[in-house]
């Protein structure tokens, strides 16, 4: 029977450690000792206090491998500052503060010092001093393990990792670690020279702080060069592009343009506009932008004008604003950097999209900036131009005042709009054969998709997250519980990122996350909250059970942690931990999810919630061959799943063939 984490912690804390103490604290013990040797006192690990540790350091300074005696005062000062920050006194047990939690504790302490504007040299010195305290604790633990034959710190750490349910054999195979060696280390053997690289892999695999295992090795084995994760070409280009931004910021928009943009949103969401049925064949229809109700009562932000009309918001407006902001940014960019150097008020009008010379220059700029790649971003700009300049129901046709801003005769305005649309349609048609994806959206999860069961990668990630549970409580533990639920729920119910951000909960059972009459957790979301409301979502509302193993995570999070994120009455399930935004929508969820998957999803450089949909769908198709089942889980159409979500590879076909041939050849 496997021991629980709590049992292992109890077992570890019951062990005893020995350290040297001066005679003054042992006056009641009148033992005789040889000259030159120090007196020993056995103290159980959970009673090893910081006061005892200070006495041990006082006895050992100046010895080989220990700090110089002259450093003692600085050592004590560094430790005193750490204890003061954490509200600990010298009589407090050392516990995990200078053991498994040391890296996290040190990072938090460094953050405090930076807040107090300490210099870089001061911080580096304090870090060095605190690491010497940590080294002493590990030394005492090793001494006790050698003396009594009990588990070493490394052995205890490995046992604790695999006590959480991780498979020893599977982990060794996936990380390329010799299984026999991993078994010996867990049994207490000392790693041989050159083994440090394997412990770096274990740290990354289980999402542990860097050095959590390496620091437990003998000092001569701790230094090893860590191979960087393989780069993704698209992200390298984006990193370079982000370092040299050019798009207009929403805060820099003029009042005139804000009014134009709001007018465009109202025009594109007006259900009373459009053309008659008889004219559709000739002119096409006016495609409306969809408005959705806000999922929460968040106060309006300073950028609400980008996508908000009344108490509703328009995601299409937000997407198109990105294209507009980039075009305006290029118009205002200095000529020596490739732009046109326009003044802000002159550049910031939708009428600039009727200037074919400007459009041509911008297309050339975008293609050059993308390394010669013609991507969907170029096509999106041209589609936007075609929509604005449509001769029958384009927005610009209805705005002769915009023509006057550009010094264009009102009579010539319709013809200029027509020429811009003709140009956009022609270039879009010419670009189509040469267009290609600027990135492979599945590259970050390639290693997961290639597994026989891609969901094993998610399960392993959650186990690593479990192994990295904070022991300090408070907000750190609340963030851990939130992240754990976010990862598990996205696998159980693979919703799009926006639906996860808007997911609501009310204690009375009226939220989207709720319990049904049978006491089962399920998610119920109305059709209008889905991106594909006009597609699969229009046929049925989303009403699906949450997988049962996730239920305890939901209940624990809602009961113990969720209220720690926001003091206000916010109905969202997932909230930001940043001070001052806890009561708002978690706008940076995608970025945080990327950090989470980079840390815990093995072989993944980081990805957003949408990629979990691909992992789940591929796992279902690989196991069952059933695209209908995958479509039901994703709340999408079967043909959409066939085209975009079922990522099968040659090995999957070979595996199915092996099953069939096996049955045939084994037939008697």
Distance between the termini: 40 Å
Q: Which structural class should the secondary elements be placed in?
A: mainly alpha
Count of domain modules: 4
Give the rounded overall mean pLDDT.
Answer: 78
**Helical segment tally?**
28
Share of helix among residues?
Answer: 40-55%
Please mark out the parts with pLDDT under 50 across 5 or more consecutive residues, or reply none.
8-46, 219-229, 275-284
> What percent of residues are in strands?
under 5%
Structural Rg: 31 Å
Overall 3D form: elongated
Largest sheet data: 3 strands, antiparallel
Order of strands across the widest beta sheet?
3-5-4
Strand segment count: 8
Describe the structure concisely.
The chain has 668 residues and is mainly alpha-helical. It has helices spanning 5-14, 50-60, 72-86, 102-115, 120-148, 153-162, 168-175, 179-187, 196-205, 233-242, 255-269, 277-283, 315-332, 344-347, 356-369, 376-388, 400-405, 413-431, 446-449, 455-467, 474-492, 497-502, 551-561, 589-600, 610-624, 627-634, 638-644, 650-665, and strands spanning 16-20, 40-44, 292-293, 308-309, 312-313, 513-515, 521-525, 542-545. Helix 16 (376-388) runs antiparallel to helix 18 (413-431) and helix 25 packs antiparallel against helix 26.
């Amino acid at each position: 029977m496997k021991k629980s984490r709590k049992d292992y912690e109890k077992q570890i804390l019951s062990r005893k450690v020995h350290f040297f103490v001066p005679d003054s604290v042992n006056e009641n013990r009148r033992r005789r000792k040889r000259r030159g040797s120090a007196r020993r006192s056995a103290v159980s690990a959970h009673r090893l206090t910081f006061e005892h540790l200070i006495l041990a350091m006082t006895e050992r300074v100046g010895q080989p491998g220990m700090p110089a005696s002259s450093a003692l005062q600085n050592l004590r000062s560094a430790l005193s500052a750490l204890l003061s920050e954490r509200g600990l006194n010298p009589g407090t047990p050392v516990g995990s503060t200078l053991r498994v939690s040391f890296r996290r504790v040190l990072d938090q302490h460094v953050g405090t010092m930076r807040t107090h504007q300490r210099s870089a040299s001061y911080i580096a010195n304090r870090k060095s001093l605190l690491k010497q305290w940590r080294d002493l604790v590990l030394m005492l633990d090793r001494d006790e393990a050698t003396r009594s034959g009990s588990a070493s710190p490394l052995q205890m750490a490995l046992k604790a990792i695999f006590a959480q349910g991780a498979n020893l054999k599977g982990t060794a195979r996936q990380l390329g670690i010799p299984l026999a060696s991993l078994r010996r280390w867990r049994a207490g053997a000392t790693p041989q020279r050159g083994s440090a690289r394997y412990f770096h892999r274990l740290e990354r695999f289980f999402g542990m702080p860097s050095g959590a295992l390496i620091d437990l090795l003998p000092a001569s084995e701790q230094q090893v060069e860590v191979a960087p994760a393989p780069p993704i070409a698209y992200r390298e280009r984006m990193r370079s592009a982000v370092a040299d931004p050019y798009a207009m910021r929403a805060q820099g928009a003029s009042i005139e343009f804000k009014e134009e943009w709001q007018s465009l949103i109202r025009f594109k969401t007006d259900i009373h506009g459009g053309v008659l049925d008889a004219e559709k064949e000739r002119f096409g229809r006016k495609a409306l932008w969809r408005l959705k109700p806000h999922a929460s009562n968040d106060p309006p932000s300073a950028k609400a004008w980008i996508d908000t009309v009344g108490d509703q918001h328009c995601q299409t407006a937000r997407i198109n604003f990105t294209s507009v902001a980039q075009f305006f940014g290029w118009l205002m960019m200095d000529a020596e950097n490739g732009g046109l150097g326009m003044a802000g008020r002159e550049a910031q009008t939708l009428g600039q999209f009727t200037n074919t010379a400007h459009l041509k220059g911008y297309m050339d700029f975008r293609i050059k900036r993308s390394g010669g790649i013609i991507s969907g971003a170029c096509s999106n700009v041209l589609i936007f131009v075609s929509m604005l300049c449509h001769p029958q129901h384009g927005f610009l046709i209805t705005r002769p005042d915009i023509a006057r801003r550009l010094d264009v005769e009102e009579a010539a305005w319709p013809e200029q709009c027509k020429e811009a649309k003709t140009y956009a349609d022609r270039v879009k048609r010419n670009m189509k054969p040469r267009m290609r994806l600027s990135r492979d959206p599945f590259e970050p999860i390639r290693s997961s998709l290639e597994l026989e069961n891609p969901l094993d990668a998610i399960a392993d990630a959650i186990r690593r997250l479990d192994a990295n549970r904070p022991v300090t409580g408070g907000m750190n533990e609340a963030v851990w519980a939130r992240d754990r639920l976010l990862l598990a729920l996205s696998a159980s119910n693979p919703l799009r990122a926006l639906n996860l951000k808007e997911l609501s909960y009310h204690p009375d059972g009226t939220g989207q996350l709720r319990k049904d009459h049978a006491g089962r957790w399920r998610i119920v979301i109305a059709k209008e909250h889905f991106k594909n409301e006009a597609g699969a979502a229009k046929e049925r509302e989303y009403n699906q059970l949450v997988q049962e193993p996730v239920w305890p995570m939901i209940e624990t999070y809602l009961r113990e942690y969720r209220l720690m994120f926001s003091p206000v009455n916010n109905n969202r399930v997932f909230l930001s931990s940043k001070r001052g935004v806890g009561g708002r929508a978690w706008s940076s969820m995608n970025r945080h999810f990327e950090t989470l998957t980079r840390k815990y999803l093995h072989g993944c450089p980081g990805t957003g919630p949408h990629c979990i949909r691909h992992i789940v769908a591929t796992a279902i198709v690989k196991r069952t061959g059933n695209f209908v089942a995958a479509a039901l889980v994703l709340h999408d159409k079967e043909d959409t799943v066939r085209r975009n979500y079922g990522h099968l590879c040659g090995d999957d076909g070979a595996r199915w063939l092996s099953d069939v041939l096996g049955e045939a050849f084994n037939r008697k």
